[in-house]
Write a structure and sequence with these properties.
Layout lengths: L1 H31 L22 E7 L4 E5 L20 E13 L5 E14 L11 H4 L1 E5 L5 E6 L6 E3 L13 E10 L10 E13 L1
Antiparallel strand pairs: 1-2, 1-3, 3-8, 4-7, 4-9, 5-6, 5-8
Length: 210
């Protein structure tokens, strides 16, 4: 009886050890292995966006209709600033057109105006390439709504001019605007080379974000 009891006790001990090992192995897998519990946090919707530099340009020839355009539709949809005919010596100074510039973007900006080109062409067979003085002889005056004189001088000599908004500030915040009036004059001493000529000018309004 004593021998059988010892053998039985050994079997129970071995079975107990196996059970403990199985439980220990399960614990290792369950708590530190493939079946471990996890938690996460997620940051959604992170974005980075930019401001935009844009403006509108509304040109009105004196006596005509307003022609609006934007920097995105220019130059094809922008109107002429003036369209004056039958000039003679001693003409003007006369207001011939206006342009209203508005900062339609989301960024504060500075604006400038410059003459892109000024070309003289002839209106009849008597005109020659040497008769190319009209653009230089025409006197251009540009004023804003303050009123402030932006430029006064030869049309052909217009440099790049910095522009203020209607409050007189060089920094145009979004929605700021100003209206610029163009006036022309042809002096009484205009030479014969100005006869039968047409001056075609292109003006560019520049915008720079600040």
């Amino acid at each position: 009886m004593s021998i059988e009891r010892k053998s039985s006790d050994r079997r129970k001990l071995r079975a107990g050890m196996v059970f403990v090992l199985v439980v220990a192995g399960t614990a290792l897998i369950g708590w530190g292995g493939l079946a471990a519990w996890q938690a996460v946090t997620v940051n959604n919707g992170s974005t980075a966006s930019t401001l935009g530099v844009h403006h509108s340009n509304v040109a009105t020839v004196t006596g005509g209709s307003a022609v609006p355009c934007t920097d995105e539709s220019a130059p094809g949809t922008c109107g002429a600033i003036f369209n004056v005919t039958k000039l003679t010596p001693g003409y003007g100074p006369t207001a011939v057109g206006t342009v209203t510039i508005t900062n339609t973007g989301t960024e504060a900006s500075t604006f400038n105006l410059q003459l892109t080109s000024a070309v003289v062409s002839g209106d009849d067979l008597m005109w020659t390439a040497a008769n190319n003085t009209l653009c230089a002889d025409l006197k251009l005056t540009i004023t804003d709504s303050e009123p402030h004189t932006v430029y006064a001088g030869s049309l052909a000599a217009l440099p790049s001019e910095a522009l203020n908004n209607s409050n007189g500030s060089a920094t145009w915040n979004p929605a700021d605007s100003n209206t610029f009036t163009f006036s022309l004059a042809l002096p009484p001493n205009s030479p014969n080379t100005d006869e039968d000529s047409t001056c075609t000018a292109v003006f560019t309004w520049g915008q720079n974000g600040v």
